Fold:
Amino acid sequence: MQKTVFVLNGPNLNLLGTREPQVYGAQTLADVEQLCAQACARHGLQLRFHQSNHEGQLIDWIHEAGQLHARGALAGVILNAGAYTHTSIALMDAIKGTGVALLELHISNVFAREAFRHHSYLSPVARAVMCGFGVQGYVLAVEAVAQW
Ligand code: CA2
Structure:
């Protein structure tokens, strides 16, 4: 059975490639989706790629992933929750409550940035955490989830 990978992107990541290229690079979110699609195709995985600026929408997608997880049809969730990483108990509860295997991803090295980016509500409930690989991190994350 072909398993599904959810790649979920939080607030402001729709701006990728348009501003702050020194921090987030020059590639757009559409470019990132294409990289993920190619990586998934290489591993025989189905891709669900989404971005939302709304916390509740991200939670709804995690719940959807949870339903696939319950049927044994989920490879994993790759989540770049953006700034919600540092604020959202609701996202943490959704990850914990659904039991999905989740890789927390950040484009930048959050530990080399402001102190408020050093704490994540999500890391304690994530299976793995990656940061600082630029948008190439999404490809590495798909490769990792393909081994789960
Ligand atoms: O490094 C990451 O991927 C972050 O999750 C990005 C978040 C930030 O709040 C986290 O601390 C680290 C911000 C996403 C904003 O994305 C933009 C992209 C281009 C231009 C402006 C914002």
Q: What stands out?
A: The two ends are 15 Å apart (CA to CA). Residues 12-13, 15-16, 19-20, 24, 80, 82-83, 85, 106-108, 110, 117 surround CA2 (CB under 6 Å). Residues 55-70 form the longest helix (16 residues).
